[in-house]
Write a structure and sequence with these properties.
The complex is a heterodimer of chains A (315) and B (276). Helices cover 26% and strands 23% of the residues of chain A. In chain B, helix 3 packs parallel to helix 6, helix 4 crosses helix 6 and helix 8 packs antiparallel against helix 10. The chains are: A alpha/beta (315), B mainly alpha (276).
C-alpha cells in the first residue's frame, strides 16, 4: 500500500513560442502508507506541479501515478459529476484557498453534504468536531474567511481537506505564507493529525528545517528531477549530491544540521526549463562538475537500501 | 452556544450614502407613479380623445395640459412611464440571464465554446445599439415584447463581457481548484463558488442597463418603432410634441429619466460594498 510514481513527466506546451516547459522530467518514487515524504527544492523545480499531479488536478504527460495501486482520478477535465478522492491538497496561500463568500462552517459542511459522508442531521456535529480537531473554536463557524487570521484560515483549509476523509494529504508549502510565530503551531497540528488519523503526508517546502521536523523520507528536487532520496537522517546528515549540500549550506543556521565538509555556495540561476541543459541538469552550477557531466544524464543510483543519489561523481 | 459575529448588513452601508438614498427615493417615486398607471388611477384616460379641449395649457383639470387630440398629458406621462419601466425591466432581465449564463460558461470552460461566445458578442457590439434594435424591431414587430427582445439582444453582449472577465481570474483562484480537488461537479463550482464572487460588477451593470434601456425604449418609440399610437410612450410624446404645440413640457420627462438614471446607478454602486 503506497503512493507510486513511475517516470511521471509533465510538459507544458507554450503555443506562442512553440516551445515546451519541462516541469517534471521523470519522477519515480514510492512512498509507503503512513509515512511522510518531504520534498525540497528551489522555486520552479516542479514541486507544485508534482502536487497538482498527485491530487489529479492535472494529468501527467507520461508515466503513471498510483495510489494503492490505482491511477489517481483525473480531474483535469471538468466532469459534470461528483467524485470523492482519497488524495487531498492544502494550498500554500491561506488568503486565496477559501471562498471569500462562504462562511467557514458551510465550506466544511459542503464537502460532507456533497459526498454524503454523514447523514444530514449529523453534519453540523461533524463540522464542529473537525473545527475542534484543527484547533478552531466551533463558535467561529459563522465567520467569513476575511474575519480570520492567516493561521486560522490555514487550519480551516486543513479541516476542509480532512472533511473529505483522505488517506493521503499533499501539503504544498502549508506554512510558508504564515507568520513565523504561528508556523510551529500549525506544524505541530499537522504532526498530531498524522498520528490521529493515520495519514500519509507529502510535504512540500523549500525550508529544510520544516522538512526535517515532519518528514520520514526526503526527496530533493532540481529542475523537475529527484537528485537525492532517502530517510531524513541520510539526506540531511549525510548529504551526497552537491545540490543537497549546497541547500544545506545555504541554511541560515548550521548548528542543527549540515556539519560536514561543504563545497562552495551555489552561484547562478536555475536553467530555463524550456531550454534544458544537456546532460546533468545541475552541471552548470555544480562545484564538482566534470567535463562528462554535460553529456551524461545521471539516474538515481542506490547508495544503501533507502538512500539514492543522482550523481555518479559522489558514489 | 453559538455567538454570531454581529455583521452590519448592506442596508446599513447603503443608508449611509447620500447619493444612494436620494437615488433610492427617486427610483421609488418612479415606481410609485408607474404603479398608479398600472392600477389605472390616473386622472383621465390616456387614450381618450377630447376634440373640444385640444392643446390646452396646464390647468387644475389637466395638470400638464392636453395634446393635439385633447388627451391629458399628465395621464399619458404616467402611462408612458409604466410602459418604459416594463420594457426596461423585462429586457434587462432577459439580457442578464442570457448574458451572465453565456459569459460564465464561456469564461469557465474556455476552448471553442468561449471563442464562439466572444465572437458572437463582438459581432453584436460592432453594430450601433439603436441601429441593431431598429433592425430587430423591424423584423419582429411592434409589440412591447418585441421591443424588449430587441433591447435584450443589444444588451446581452455587455453582460457576457461583464461576467466573463472576472470568471477568467476567479477560476484560477485556489478555492476553485480546491473545489475541483474535493470532487465537486462543475455546476456546483459555477453556482456556489464562481457566481457569488463575480456578482458585484454584474449588479452594477444591471442598475446601469435598466436606465439605459428606458432611454433606448424612448428612442425606438420616438422613431415610431416602439409603442404605437394611440398608446402613450415618453419617446412617442416627444415626437408628437415636435408638431409645435405647447406640449414641450413632456420633453422634460426623458430628461428627468436621465437624472434618475444617474441616481439609480449611484445606488447600484453601493451594493457590492460588503466584502471589499
Amino acid at each position: 500500500m503506497s503512493l507510486d510514481l513511475a517516470g511521471a513527466t509533465k510538459r507544458y506546451k507554450i503555443r506562442a513560442t512553440g516551445t515546451e516547459i519541462n516541469a517534471l522530467n521523470g519522477i519515480s518514487l514510492s512512498l509507503p502508507e503512513g509515512k511522510t515524504l518531504g520534498i525540497v527544492g528551489e522555486s520552479g523545480c516542479g514541486k507544485s506541479t508534482l502536487a497538482r499531479l498527485i491530487v489529479g488536478l492535472e494529468k501527467p504527460t507520461e508515466g503513471s501515478i498510483l495510489w494503492r495501486g490505482q491511477e489517481i482520478a483525473d480531474k483535469s477535465h471538468d466532469a459534470f459529476r461528483t467524485r470523492l478522492s482519497k488524495t487531498q491538497l492544502v494550498f500554500q496561500d491561506p488568503y486565496s484557498s477559501l471562498n471569500p463568500r462562504q462562511r467557514i462552517g458551510e465550506c466544511i459542511a459542503e464537502v460532507i453534504r456533497v459526498h454524503k459522508l454523514r447523514p444530514d442531521n449529523e453534519i453540523s456535529a461533524r463540522v464542529e468536531e473537525l473545527l475542534t480537531v484543527v484547533g478552531i473554536a466551533p463558535d467561529l463557524q459563522h465567520r467569513y474567511p476575511h474575519q480570520l487570521s492567516g493561521g486560522q484560515r490555514q487550519r480551516v483549509s486543513v479541516a476542509r481537506a480532512l472533511a473529505a476523509e483522505p488517506d493521503l494529504l499533499v501539503l504544498d508549502e502549508p506554512v510558508s505564507a504564515l507568520d513565523v510565530s504561528v508556523r510551529a503551531d500549525v506544524m505541530n497540528l499537522l504532526v498530531d493529525l498524522r498520528e490521529k488519523f493515520g495519514l500519509t503526508y507529502l510535504f512540500i517546502s523549500h525550508d529544510l528545517s520544516m522538512i526535517r521536523h515532519i518528514s520520514d523520507l526526503i526527496a530533493v528536487m532540481y529542475l523537475g528531477k529527484i537528485v537525492e532520496y532517502g530517510t531524513w537522517q541520510e539526506v540531511l546528515e549525510n548529504p551526497k549530491h552537491p545540490y543537497t549540500r549546497a541547500l544545506i549550506e545555504a541554511m541560515p543556521d548550521h548548528t542543527v544540521i549540515g556539519r560536514g565538509n561543504i563545497a562552495k555556495p551555489l552561484t547562478g540561476e536555475v536553467p530555463d526549463p524550456a531550454n534544458m541543459p544537456t546532460g546533468c541538469a545541475f552541471h552548470l552550477r555544480c562545484p564538482i562538475s566534470q567535463p562528462i557531466c554535460s553529456q551524461r544524464i545521471p539516474d538515481l543510483m542506490k547508495l544503501s537500501n533507502s538512500h539514492s543519489v543522482a550523481c555518479p561523481e559522489v558514489i | 452556544m453559538t455567538s454570531r459575529v454581529k455583521e452590519k448588513s448592506w442596508l446599513h452601508y447603503y443608508l449611509r450614502s447620500t447619493s444612494g438614498v436620494i437615488g433610492a427615493i427617486l427610483v421609488f417615486l418612479m415606481v410609485l407613479l408607474s404603479l398608479i398607471a398600472a392600477f389605472k388611477l390616473y386622472p383621465h384616460d390616456p387614450v381618450l380623445q377630447d376634440i373640444e379641449n385640444t392643446l390646452k395649457g396646464p390647468s387644475g383639470n389637466y395638470w400638464f395640459g392636453t395634446d393635439q387630440f385633447g388627451r391629458d398629458i399628465f395621464s399619458r406621462c404616467l402611462d408612458g412611464m409604466r410602459r418604459s419601466m416594463i420594457v426596461s425591466i423585462f429586457s434587462v432581465a432577459i439580457a442578464t440571464v442570457v448574458g451572465v449564463t453565456l459569459g460564465i460558461l464561456g469564461g469557465y470552460f474556455g476552448r471553442w465554446f468561449d471563442s464562439v461566445v466572444v465572437r458572437m458578442s463582438d459581432v453584436i457590439f460592432a453594430f450601433p445599439a439603436i441601429l441593431l434594435a431598429l433592425a430587430i424591431v423591424n423584423s419582429l414587430g411592434n409589440s412591447w415584447i418585441d421591443t424588449s427582445l430587441a433591447i435584450a439582444v443589444v444588451y446581452t453582449p455587455i453582460f457576457i463581457r461583464v461576467a466573463r472577465g472576472p470568471v477568467l481570474s476567479t477560476k484560477e483562484m485556489d478555492y476553485v481548484k480546491s473545489a475541483r480537488i474535493l470532487g465537486f461537479s462543475s455546476p456546483r463550482i459555477l453556482v456556489s463558488h464562481i457566481l457569488p464572487n463575480v456578482l458585484a460588477p454584474i449588479v452594477v451593470q444591471i442598475a446601469l442597463s435598466l436606465s439605459w434601456a428606458i432611454l433606448t425604449e424612448s428612442g425606438l418609440s420616438f422613431l415610431g418603432l416602439g409603442t404605437q399610437p394611440p398608446n402613450a410612450s415618453l419617446g412617442l410624446m416627444v415626437s408628437d410634441a415636435q408638431a409645435g404645440s405647447f406640449c414641450l413640457v413632456d420633453s422634460r420627462i426623458p430628461f428627468t429619466f436621465y437624472h434618475y438614471r444617474s441616481c439609480w446607478s449611484q445606488s447600484g454602486r453601493r451594493w457590492p460594498s460588503r466584502f471589499t
